[in-house]
Amino acid sequence: MFQIKESFLQRGVLILARENNSNIQWTYGAVPLSRDETHNKVIEMMEKEPRGSVLDVPTGTGILADRLRKIGFEVSCCDINPAYFSVPELTIDIGNLNQSLPYPNDSFDYLICLDGIEHTENPSNAIREFQRVLKKGGKILLSTPNFLNIERRLRFLFTGTFSKIPSHEVIKNIWKGDITMAHLSPLGYPLLKFIMECHGFHILRLEKDRKKPKMVWLLPLVWLIRLYGRMASKKRRELYRLDETSKDEIILGGNTLIIMGEKVV
After folding, report:
1. Of the N and C termini of the chain, which has fewer Cβ atoms inside 10 Å?
2. pLDDT for 186-209, tens place per residue?
3. Closest Cα partner for 162 from 227, 236, 231, 257?
4. Cβ(256)–Cβ(263) under 8 Å?
5. CATH of region 36-212+254-263
6. d(Cα 165, Cα 79) in Å, to the nearest integer?
């Protein structure tokens, strides 16, 4: 896949809070705005599921929705800004994850949200909307940067932040004032899981986009963190979700964490 300059995109983002911006002229066609590995892993997971209705939100260029369509799913596409959408075989609906989605309750068998939740101003509202439009027993596949792998933890130790903070010049001149291109809500897995469970989801499984071989050099730090977790009291392990954050999918995970959940309420 050809590379899109990051002056146009921050890797893995979609605009989620700006009204339709007619100044955007997207000419790159239907290409992934998230990592290729994330798209491929989600398709691999969905291929094993019974066919049904899927909401892809935010859909971006529509490339994932088109791949789902081609393997037999009935796909609906939604985004706050249709300027990127580049799949003529599908249509796009306008919706805002910080407010509401334009669908009735219990509309879909599946909902896919790739690298979008961390860009919302109100991630709890977005997950509440996901729960509302999914049928009971419906499944959600949600991806987000893995902010708690050992690389990012080490980066946080030295920088005090999980994500790069854009300059005001970038926001003004490249992002046209849209701060939601940044990671406004960099949620680690324990907090994201907590919000999802509060809104009626049960976590089924975790996946990573890809292995990161260079992490082998950080294994001593991983062992130290896991030793701390084992020595902590049961109450502390529960309060800080230490057993969960020391799982391979988290601490030794790739750049992206993929969560599969089921609507149980």
Report:
1. N
2. 999 999 999 999 999 999 999 999
3. 257
4. no
5. 3.40.50.150
6. 24
**One-letter amino acid of 263:** K
User: If you average pLDDT over residues 201-223, what whole number do you get?
Assistant: 95
Read off φ and ψ for residue 122, nearest 5 degrees: -140, 80
Residues 6+ apart with CB under 8 A from 251: 148, 149, 150, 153, 222, 225, 226, 245
Instruction: Take residue 188 and report the two structure tokens written for it.
Output: 């680690």
What is d(CA 34, CA 257) in angstroms, rounded to the nearest whole number? 12
pLDDT for residue 181 is more than 60: yes
Burial class (CB in 10 A: 0-12, 13-18, 19+), 125: middle
Give the whole-angstrom CA distance, residue 47 versus residue 74.
13
CB proximity list for 159: less than 8 A, separation 6 or greater: none
Asked if 249 and 206 count as a contact pair (C-beta separation under 8 A), the reply is yes
pTM higher than 0.90, yes or no?
no
Distance separating alpha carbons of residues 56 and 64, to the nearest angstrom? 8
H/E element holding 150?
A: helix 150-159
d(CA 216, CA 197): 33
How are beta strands 108-114 and 92-94 bridged, if at all? unpaired
CA angle 213, 214, 218 (to 5 degrees): 120
Widest pairwise Cα distance in the chain: 57
The residues pairing with 76 across neighbouring beta strands, listed in sequence order, are 55
Give me the pLDDT at residue 19, please: 40
**Average pLDDT in the 96-114 region?**
97
Pick from 75, 106, 45: nearest CA to 263: 106
Closest of 64, 232, 57 to residue 142, by C-alpha: 57
